[in-house]
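Extended Data, panel c. Modelled sequence:
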Amino acid sequence: MNTRPNWTTTPIGLDILRGALDLERTERGVLPHRLPAHARQQIPDGQLAMAESQPSGVRLAFRSRATAVELDVVATKRVYPGAPPRPDGVYELLVDGRLAGRASAPDGDTLTIDLASGTAHSRPGPVETISFTGLPDTEKGIEIWLPHDETTQLVALRTNAPVSTPQPSGRPVWLHHGSSISHGSNAATPTGTWPALAAALGGAELINLGFGGGALLDPFTARAIRDTPADLISVKIGINLVNADLMRLRAFGPAVHGFLDTIREGHPTTPLLVVSPILCPIHEHTPGPAAPDYSAMSEGRLRFIATGDPAETAAGKLTLTVIRDELARLVGRRAATDPHLHHLDGLALYGETDHAELPLPDALHPDPATHRRIGERFAGLAFGDDGPFAVKRR
């Protein structure tokens, strides 16, 4: 631990964290969570528990004249036997909204997940120090965006000048819920996920409740959205319901209604945008479940396939085309009595023409360039002058 006397150590609490709904005290520090404790008690699987602890959109935010910043962390490194190694998570430091540095923690706890057997085991690792230097010697706003896909315990924050809590930005708070695509899978950096890009372009403060494999219309997620202050809300529904083969068409409509009803209990007039799935060819007409393509893994590539039978849609199995049609119908009917409810076809964010130019590398998740395209498209369609999130630019 660094104890040089010219450094100021600042306690890490929710007062200097943005994008986290809860903060858990651990043996080594604090762990940001994107679902509150009462919701986490109801999580039925390890996948969602892992995803919500990965701090997509979570950032430290403070003001200081500091020219050097150090952050002690314990990162959780994921290992999938047979799959290509995962890159280290990226920490990004912004000064007054502009990127001023990037760093990674090369070591940490290790979580090994066997996709074939569904088993997992962990190994503890060391505390690492993330350092940023050469910052301007002026009073400034500093943000440190945590890795979007790497669970991170925060141990200590040090600066070579005192820290103060920033005043409210005045920007609208946008809460978004979605799947791994919204979480940021295959994005290269935390500010490079499509919701982070859209928030920056739209002038909004992001709360990202995108959960890899976890956009499943869970009631506890709806209650978390209901109870979280927000000026703008969007929910992206579809891909996880298909690739998990979670429900049939008979259950889908009432589940969507219940999810939206719960959100409306806490946000009766907040602009609420329902977004249907982007293009994903393997699931356009083929139900789930999705599964790793083990022949690709034997070649050192990660790729997914759909294992359902298209004929089963007649019996109510879900595909992306079925979900898009049902969401458009359902939202259209609700909007007749809810003028603040809106619908966005996901194909407007990423469709067939986009796929021809920028195919999904693993057949399921967009790459960094596609995240940028989706973010730019969403910003224009949602935050633009005619969009449901149109706000007066400050």
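Residues 287 and 308 are 5 Å apart (CA to CA). This feature is highlighted in the accompanying rendering.
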